[in-house]
From TrEMBL:
BP GO terms, sorted: D-xylose metabolic process; regulation of DNA-templated transcription
Protein name per Swiss-Prot or TrEMBL: ROK family transcriptional regulator
Similarity section: Belongs to the ROK (NagC/XylR) family.
Matches recorded under SUPFAM superfamilies: Actin-like ATPase domain, Winged helix' DNA-binding domain
Organism of origin: Exobacillus caeni
UniProt keyword annotations, A-Z: Carbohydrate metabolism, Xylose metabolism
Alphabetized Gene3D superfamilies for the sequence: 3.30.420.40, Winged helix-like DNA-binding domain superfamily/Winged helix DNA-binding domain
Length: 395
């Protein structure tokens, strides 16, 4: 009960601070003595602090309380198929340190775990002597994740299975570790710090080397029975389409993820299609990637523009399926490919407008993520913040 009250108070200060003890009591229906005693504990532990004086309704001015963001740190890892992006933030999600490291495409389970450990060690080096202020490590892992065990069940592009991320990192660092699928981590980050703030039912889709979605229902992440809820990258779009890393054909990600766009550009140029991409990579077509296609599109390259348009159409079909399945209030698109912005988004929206079965389905709000390259890592940090502010198992 006490720890529940503690997280209720912490969360009130997080969402409504600066706020006075009296206003917390009013808003939470906790008694003023309960609020005072828990607030004292929270101040002693360094999680909150007293700030400016609030407005007085006559008599002594009350003292306001704020989250003491700078006194505790959280680590967030975005583990993609190609690189690890690591950040260290304060409790307000402000990034204080960051680094990025490449993953060897032929990595093993042990090598990957070792890489994560090394990345974290490098990240926290400037905080030597303050390790006790780091309250947890959140990991946004691509592929299918067993959230309870913190186990990566299947990382399809690296072709790895059963990587014990939580167990390994908790043993190495002795702090709480939470592991979640990367798209779900991004969705959680969006619902705390981004475009999903205040939206009860939303879907965040991560379009990068693969495609995944994080589904938020009634403000909470939806996992499904066995943690594959949201694997929309493997939604079948074209039964005769290209083969996918999962073994099926024509999955959404074989048509609209970054590697699919690059492949399409190479194919068309090999067939003789004119494009400035050819000069941009000095005829070395293997060097074409999503970023270059975007640059070429900005310069008016028709092939590149058409590639984003087509990818947007496929994504729009996937999203229409999703709208007809769970009918979210809002869809947020993040990940590397989303950097194409309106080049992609206009075509996504147009497709949903064409295919939605009702007027409200057609009008589903679709926006780009604003969290940027660190979105998934911020989401990984949020995995720990949720523990702290929502049911507070950290003590
Ligand atoms: Zn697939």
């Amino acid at each position: 009960m006490k720890s529940l009250n503690r997280s209720i108070i912490l969360n009130k200060i997080r969402t409504d601070g600066p706020i006075s003890r009296a206003d917390i009591a009013k808003a939470t229906t906790l008694t003023p003595p309960t609020v005072s005693s828990i607030v004292k504990e929270l101040i002693d532990s360094g999680l909150i602090a007293e700030s400016s004086q609030g407005e007085s309704s006559g008599g002594r001015k009350p003292t306001n309380l704020i989250i003491n963001g700078r006194n505790s740190y959280v680590i967030g890892l975005d583990v993609g198929p190609k690189h690890v992006n690591a950040i260290l933030t304060d409790l307000n999600g402000e990034i204080l340190e960051e680094n990025q490291i490449l993953i060897n495409p032929a990595t093993s389970n042990d090598e990957l775990l070792n890489l994560l450990q090394q990345t974290i060690k490098r990240l926290i080096k400037p905080y030597k002597g303050q390790e006790d202020k780091i309250i947890g490590i959140g990991v946004g892992m691509h592929g299918v994740v067993d959230v309870k065990k913190g186990l990566s069940l299947f990382a399809p592009i690296l072709q790895l299975r059963n990587i014990p991320i939580k167990e390994y990192l908790e043993k190495e660092f002795g702090i709480l570790v939470k592991v979640e699928n990367d798209a779900r981590a991004l969705a959680l980050g969006e619902s705390w710090f981004g475009n999903g703030d205040g939206v009860e039912n939303s879907v965040t889709i991560n379009v990068g080397s693969g495609i995944g979605a994080g589904i938020v229902i009634n403000g909470k992440l939806f996992h499904g029975e066995n943690d594959i809820g949201g694997e929309i990258g493997h939604m079948s779009i074209d039964i005769n389409g290209p083969e996918c890393s999962c073994g099926n054909n024509g999955c959404l990600q074989t048509l609209a993820a970054g590697p699919a766009l690059a492949e399409k550009a190479r194919r068309e140029i090999s067939k003789g299609k004119k494009s400035i991409l050819k000069e941009m990579v000095k005829d070395n077509l293997e060097e074409i990637d999503g970023k270059l296609i975007y640059e070429a599109a900005l310069k008016g390259d028709q092939l590149s523009i058409d590639i984003f348009k087509e990818a947007g159409e496929y994504l729009g079909i996937g999203l229409t399926n999703l709208i007809h399945t769970i009918n979210p209030q809002k869809i947020i698109i993040g990940g590397g490919v989303s950097k194409a912005g309106d080049l992609l988004l206009d075509s996504v929206k147009e497709t949903v407008k064409k295919r939605g079965i009702t007027e409200s389905a057609k009008q589903t709000e679709i926006v780009l993520s604003h969290l940027g390259d660190n979105g998934t890592a911020i989401g990984a940090v949020t995995l720990i913040l949720v523990e702290l502010f929502s049911h507070n198992s950290l003590g």
